[in-house]
Amino acid sequence: MVASDRDSAQAARAILSAFEAANLPALEDALERWAELLPPVSPYPDLEAERWELLQAVSQSLLEGIRRLRKGLATRLEGLETSLVLLAHLARRPPLAMPGRIR
Question: Which range marks the domain in which residue 15 is found?
């Protein structure tokens, strides 16, 4: 995947799609891919750079939370709702409906 083929909205949508599919390996793969990918060159570098920084921070936070869960250091994914709202904002779509508490 080439960074110039994507923008932050497409990257956020890819992460949300993996989350909605309830496929943890696919979610981790999407988070890892976007957490480390350099942002593309944009005609609006300041705005798009900020969006990529936010996307990368959310991705890294979610990955760390998943790792803590797997190691038994946490019982739930801290900040999940906030992360999903931020990803929806970056994806330029409404936030996912959150059914009760996610653990």
Answer: 3-91
Cβ contacts of 77 within 8 Å, gap of 6 or more = 62, 65, 66, 69, 102, 103
* Domain assignment present for 99: no
Find how far residue 52's CA is from the centre of its chain.
Answer: 10
Q: How far is CA 60 from CA 16, 33, 35, 56, 100, in A?
A: 15, 10, 6, 6, 24
Mean pLDDT taken over the chain: 79
Domain total of the chain: 1
Pair 39, 57: CB distance under 8 Å: no
The model's pTM is: 0.75
Write the pLDDT tens digit of every residue in 17-44: 988 888 888 889 888 887 776 665 555 5
Distance of CA 76 to the CA centre of its chain: 17
